[in-house]
Write a structure and sequence with these properties.
Strand content: 15-25%
Structural class: alpha/beta
Number of domains: 2
CATH superfamily of the largest domain: NAD(P)-binding Rossmann-like Domain
Shape: globular
Radius of gyration: 23 Å
Distance between the termini: 58 Å
Order of helices and strands: EHEHEHEHEHHEHEHEHEHE
Length: 246
């Protein structure tokens, strides 16, 4: 008997330019359609892509709502998001349509923690302001009262959301002599708290009012939407800083 025809490779549309290694490997395995122009897809572009592929590879800036998912053809079986978050995809609609949604939750943990620590250092020390003065030619030289900032050693760091990234930030901040406090849906086990030198604060308002630097690491959900509002910002110390890399 003749061999049965081999099924065609799944068609995969990638919404942004990824690394050469990623795209080359996808091209080996699938009928991959990269976005070499790296131009963000509009809503209409996303709808057209979803109608023409078996797998869509969006990024966290591609918002895929319920209407788009409901109107997608049955051939679309997987949305493989390039990024840790999934709040840009209507998961309930995807579940109802039996479309699998995947993400990359652990890939950017250390990178995001590095950027958070960079901001924790940069903002109180006014590094960005100083750099802009230098580049603009407005720097007038050193003076005792010029560009005074705040040290971070001995300050209280309040982490809101103590998942992988929050814990990675705590490890870094501890090395700079900061006291670590955190608010989370659930308190961490005592052994983890001890290793991080972190103290749990059940009252979010207390954490916000007492800490010198607040760092956000919780997902954007219905429960966390506008969690840091005008009222809570008003509870912060006048000398406090808010860092948002969530």
């Amino acid at each position: 008997m003749p061999d049965s025809p081999r099924p065609a490779n799944p068609r995969v549309i990638i919404t942004r330019e990824l690394s050469d290694a990623n795209q080359d490997r996808m091209s080996e395995l699938f009928d991959a359609v990269p976005n070499h122009a790296d131009t963000p897809f509009s809503r209409e572009d996303l709808i057209a892509a979803m109608a023409d592929c078996d797998v869509l590879v969006p990024t966290v800036t591609d918002h895929i709502d319920a209407e788009m998912i409901e109107n997608a053809p049955d051939r679309l079986r997987l949305i493989a998001s390039f990024g840790a978050g999934v709040d840009h995809i209507d998961l309930a609609a995807a579940r109802a349509k039996k479309i699998m949604v995947t993400n990359t939750p652990g890939v950017f943990t250390e990178d995001t923690a590095d950027m958070t620590m960079a901001l924790i250092l940069s903002v109180p020390r006014r590094l960005s302001e100083g750099e802009k003065l230098m580049r603009s030619g407005q720097w007038e030289g050193w003076k005792p009262s010029g560009m005074l900032g705040h040290c971070i050693g001995g300050k209280k760091l309040g982490i809101i959301g103590m998942g992988r990234i929050g814990q990675a930030v705590a490890r870094r901040a501890s090395g700079f002599g900061m006291s670590i406090f955190y608010h989370n849906r659930r308190q961490l086990p005592p052994a983890v708290e001890e290793s991080l030198r972190a103290s749990f604060v059940s009252d979010l308002d207390e954490l916000i009012s007492e800490c010198d630097i607040i760092s956000l690491h919780c997902p954007h959900t219905e429960q966390t939407h506008e969690m840091i509002n005008a009222e809570r910002i008003g509870k912060m110390k006048a000398s406090s800083y808010l860092i948002n890399t969530a």
